[in-house]
Amino acid sequence: MNPIRSNNSTILQVEGLKKYFPVRRGLFQRISGWVKAVEDVSFQIEKGKTLGMVGESGCGKTTIARLILKLLDADEGRIIFNGQDLVPLSETEMKPLRQEIQIIFQDPYGSLNPRMTVGQSIAEGLRVAGVFPGPDQKSRLEQLLKMVGMSPATMDRYPHEFSGGQRQRIGIARALSVEPALIICDEPVSALDVSIQAQIINLLKDLQDELDLSYLFISHDLNVVGYLCSDVAVMYRGHMMEYAPVDEIFDRPLHPYTQLLLSAAPDTAIDKSYARIEMEAEVPENLAETVGCSFQHKCPLNEDRCRDIGSTFMNVGENHWVRCWRTGENGTLGPDLA
Ligand SMILES: Nc1ncnc2c1ncn2[C@@H]1O[C@H](COP(=O)(O)OP(=O)(O)O)[C@@H](O)[C@H]1O
Ligand SMILES: [Mg+2]
Q1: What's the CATH fold of domain 10-100+180-253?
Q2: Residue ranges around ligand 1 (CB below 6 Å)
């Protein structure tokens, strides 16, 4: 079972997505194991809405972003964008769709060529997408810069002349230039000061309202997703552990890992008794070989069946899903599942 209720207002529907990377060892680079980067992940994003995807470093967030953009091929699963499955598409078939899905990175400096002016960088993005505004290019660039709160005069300056927040605005302008419908925001504020983070999040929210954009907003920080997202997916080691509307995630976190994330967040009014979870517990090196629940090594509720098979994804309320069978027994669950 999966948190899917696709309808006409769904822009992106991901079903059973899987990606393993080979681990190679020795002189002959033989495959000695697999990193299970993404395992049976399903979600959908409604038009004009934001899905937050949260989880610690290495849990598979960027891999999911790259799979959606078809920068990587999925091992299994479907990625349905506006009703069309992207997985079987060739590069040629994918080309016209490329401008519909854009990405913003944590470090826009990495995606802006230091030897190009801001204007040249944005124009380059247009050219790569096959969009040629012709004589209107200058006014289009001015308009894009204004949309992200930058003066049109910045067009002739270079990326190093700007602060992190300003560079992120330029990265957003570049993504917007091809008029995408969906923007994947991969940790777009993680490198910024808290005050600047709020400005960028407000900008993304304003642009969403103005342009009816849909976002997949990736972050390792649950606090950051609260304001922007309608639903939140919590990832741990390639698995989706919990999926719920944003208020549910904060008011009724059910998976022990979600509780751990919330208890680690400084500003949430969450019951700190959740902090009994052992953050420092040893996780074995060969985790890919682990049978059962991927969170078992840190989980205070860990029991035999978690180590044998692990839970399936269970529906525990209105679009609220949890990959933990103990949630019904540990006193944190509402009466609707009793
Ligand atoms: N190209 C690759 N080859 C091998 N392993 C990879 C590759 N890309 C990512 N991984 C591994 O897949 C896992 C998920 O990585 P990633 O998606 O970057 O996580 P996140 O963005 O959540 O930090 C990590 O264990 C990472 O080391
Ligand atoms: Mg990442």
Answers
A1: Rossmann fold (3.40.50)
A2: 21, 35, 37, 55, 57-63
